[in-house]
Amino acid sequence: MTSLRATGHLLAWLKQADVQHLSETLVAFANSDGGTIVPGYDEHGRETSSLTSEDVEALLRRAAALTSPPVRAAIEASGNASGPAVLIRVPRSLDLHSLADGRVFVRTGRENRALTGEEIRGLASTKSTGDYEADAVAGATLDDFDDAIVAEYIARRESRTRRLTGIVPPTVQNAASLLHDIGALDFHGRPTVAGVLLFCRNPQAFLPHSGVVFVKFPGTGPRGEQGRVGYGRREEIGGPLSQVIQRTWQVVFEEMRVGAIVKGLEREEVLEYPVFAVREALVNAVCHRDYRLRGRRIEVRKYADRLEIISPGGLAGYITLDNIIEEHFSRNPRIVQGLFQWGYIEELGLGVDRMIEDMVAAGHPSPRFHATSYSFTVTLSNVRERRVALQGLYAGSAGEPRSSADPSGMNERQVRAVHYLREHSRITNRDMQALCPQVTAETLRADLSGLVDLGVLLRVGEKKGTYYILK
C-alpha cells in the first residue's frame, strides 16, 4: 500500500460504498490526469469496508450511470495479497464529463473540486483541441527511435519505480510493447508526437519547433552592447526532450554568476539563481508547452537582472494565475509521465511550490508568472532581498511559539499563525479567527497582511478565495 500512497492527485480512497462520491471521483479523474481509486480502504492502508470484486463492479456501474457522458473505467486485480482485491483505473478523457445535475469536477490534491462557470469554459476549450500528443507523426517510423535513449529511459524508470520491465537487451524493437503502453506508439505501431519528442534521435526533423532558443543580453533590455541591436550569446538547442532539458540547463549554468557568503569561518559559493527553481521552470516549459503551435520554440532569455523562460501556449484547462500553486493539469500527460519516470520531475504537481520556496529561501523575490492566450512566462529575479530572520521563532524542540517579544518583530497572533502553518499547508482568514476568537476579523486580516509585508507569508488568490502560505 505504500507505493499507492505516493501518487498524490492520481489516487483516491473510496472508504465506503458511496455511489455519489464515486461518481464525483470518476468525473474528477476523467477531467484531469486520470487516476486510480482504491475501494474499501483509507489513506493509511486500513480496510474500512469489506467489498468483493462483485460489489465493486456493481458500484462502478451505478456510479458511471450518473456521469455524462459516461466515464469509462476499468476494474483490475491489485496484485497485493495484503491490500485491496481490486482497483478502479480511470483514464484521462478527451470529453468534458459532468454529473447528471451539471456539476463538473476536477482533481485537486486529494480532493474533488467543482469548477466555476469560467473554469468549465477553459477546460472545455482544452478538451476540444483533442489529444495532439497521441497523434501519429507523418513520416516517422520505429527506425527513427534511438536504442541508447530508450535504454536510458528504461534504466531510469526501473530505478524510480523499483520494478523491472524484463526488457533485455533494452532496444527499441524489444521495448515496442512498453512504448505502445506509454503512448509513444499508436495502435498501428506508428510513432506518436509524444514518442518522437521523447525517443527520436532527431525530433526536430519532424517537429522543428520542439527545441529551445537561449539568448543572453548584457543589460536589462533585449539589446546588445551599448544599446545596439544584438546579444551576448545565442544557442539553439535540439534533440529529444531529455537532452533538451540537460543541454539548456548546462548553457544557463555556464552563464550564471557565482557569488559567495560566509558562514562562520567558511566561505560558501552561491549561484545567481537556485538550481531547483531554474530546472523546474525549464522542465515545466518543456512539459506543458503547446506543441501544436509550430511557429515558436521555447525561449530562455537571460538579462543582467533576471531570467525569463517563455513557453508557447497559454495556461491549459482550468489553470489560472490564481490557482497555479494548488492545481494541476497536464496538456501533455504522456510527456509529463515519461519525464517523471525518467527522473526529470521530482513530484508531480508540487514543483511550483518548491520553486517559490527555494527562491525566497535564497533571498530572491518570488517568481513572477505572466500568462496570455498564446504564451506563459516565468521570470526569476537575481535581486536578493533582505528577509526577516526567523531563527529562534520556536522555543525548544516541541515547536511552541515564543511570546509577543519575538525578535522577528511579529506579535503573538502572528507567531501563532506561523506556528499553525508549520502544521498545515495554508491559512485563511477564517482559520486565523478560529485561532484568535477574541480578536476582530479586521485586526486579524491586518496581521496576515503584515506577515506578507515582512516577507514571511505569500498571499495566494483573491477575495473569498484568498489564503496564505509560508515563503
Q: Strand pairing plus helix content: what structural class?
A: alpha+beta
| Main β sheet profile | 6 strands, mixed
What is the helical fraction, as a range of percent?
Answer: 25-40%
Number of helices: 14
Question: What strand line-up does the widest sheet have?
Answer: 10-9-13-14-16-15
pLDDT averaged residue by residue = 86
Shape: globular
CATH class of the largest domain: Alpha Beta
Q: What gyration radius follows from the Cα positions, in whole Å? A: 24 Å
- Low-confidence parts, pLDDT < 50 over ≥5 residues? 386-407
User: Could you give the count of β-strands?
Assistant: 20
Q: Name the beta content range.
A: 15-25%
> Any idea of the CATH topology of the largest domain?
Heat Shock Protein 90
CATH architecture of the largest domain: 2-Layer Sandwich
Distance between the termini: 33 Å
How many domain modules?
A: 4
List the helices and strands and how they pair.
Blueprint: H1 2-5, E1 11-14, H2 19-31, E2 35-39, H3 53-64, E3 67-68, E4 74-77, E5 86-90, E6 98-99, E7 105-108, E8 111-114, H4 117-127, H5 147-161, H6 176-181, H7 193-199, E9 212-216, E10 233-237, H8 241-255, E11 258-263, E12 266-271, H9 275-288, E13 298-302, E14 306-312, H10 333-342, H11 351-361, E15 368-371, E16 375-381, E17 394-395, E18 400-401, H12 412-423, H13 429-435, H14 441-453, E19 457-460, E20 467-470
Helix pairs in contact: 2-3, 7-10, 8-9, 9-11
